[in-house]
Amino acid sequence: MREYSPDLTPQWKRAKPAQEVPADPGLVVEVAGIDFCGAVVACEAGTVTLEDRFGKRRVFPLEPRGFLLEGAVVTLTRPARGPVAPARTASGSIAVPGARARVARAGRIYVEGRHDAELVERVWGDDLRIEGVVVEYLEGIDDLPAVVAEFAPAADARLGVLVDHLVPGSKESRIAAAVTSPHVLIVGHPYVDVWQAVKPSALSFPAWPVIPRGEDWKTGVCRALGWPENTGAAWQHILSRVTSYKDLEPTLLGAVEHLIDHVTA
Fold this sequence. Notes:
alpha/beta, seven-stranded mixed β-sheet, 6 helices, globular
């Protein structure tokens, strides 16, 4: 017969049982002992699948004390209810319910104008707040080299710049080429104005009108589409029709995602 041996470890030294937390879709956790953080996208018998902010997925066993939730060790358990698809932000990222905005990074993203900033906020606002990335607008990029020099980008203060009409031979491309800091990333889209980055289908017309050179583009668009020649009101109408990344052209999507990755690297 096995002899009973009492546990003489003082109560204050004994490990406390970890809190059990259901692995609900969208829950963001870190894997204990591994540099991987992600949101729950699936939970099956004995395993949980996590997806990080870059879309990479990995499967981990549901081991006791195997994860960290807001810095505290927890044990993930299989949810009692059936699987539910995680909520998504307007950019397509997994939403993090109740997440607080991170303290702003030293790095920044600059865009040309207010409309660019409002469109980026509309689609990527939730992601930018979680990452602590501030977006500012420049009122044009004619003075970009001086603006960059004043910002003084560094390895821990990276700068990303989104430029309209960044095509070979354009004025914008020549200005961008004058910025040579390795801590600055300049990307752009081929459109005359960020309005064109919104898909015409989101606005219920087949294509953006072609405006003759020398004519104010935004005013010409309003005239061609039969809208009142009030560009501010026209932009608010355009912006109101953007509900997610699906309403934007892929060229702009790739450019903004590239900037976020650069600033947060």
